[in-house]
Design goal:
It comes from Noviherbaspirillum album. InterPro entries: DUF6088. By secondary structure, the protein is of the alpha+beta class. Helix content is 44%, strand content 17%. Strand 7 and strand 8 form a beta hairpin. It is elongated and about 70 Å long.
Amino acid sequence: MSILSTSILERVARLEEGGIISPKEFLHVASRAAIDQAFTRLTKDGRLLRVGRGLYVAPVVSRFGTRPPAPEKVVAAVAHQKGEVAVSHGAADANALGLTTQVPVKEVFLSSGPSRTLHLGRRIIDVRHAPRWQLILGTSRAGMAVRAMAWLGKEHLSEVLPKLRQQLPSEDWEKLTAARASLPSWMAKAVGGAMSHA
């Protein structure tokens, strides 16, 4: 194995699960052509997975075999590298909060960055650009509630809000109500109404 390939694998070994490595990190070591060849070889050998253009991750090796890293960890690592915010999709949030029994078939995440598709072996991860108001409360349960309400739509809000009021710890309910000014009018009005009935 070449010194360059060894350097790449040593760098990968220091990353947490889903951590991103890029050929650009090695431009001080070798020519771009040599770096691209090394990454291509390591990908063919199964030592790296190419998740997107210039984005690679290491597979997770355990006593049960080799698997791709968890999608949420890869999405979070890509977002961190690019200075973006990434969160779960409203369908997944609605399910996690017990507002629907539907389990999302596709793996979708929302991001402050451009929409992109990531590949984890045979799995396709869809990262969609989202409006700022769906991201302001981040990964908190209050943020999940906002995205769940957005996904369920205004026609289901009256039945969903009482459940949310019960589900959310008071700290998260306060975060949600404090963020009303940033939410779409229909959602802000419904949350305000739920406050007055509490």
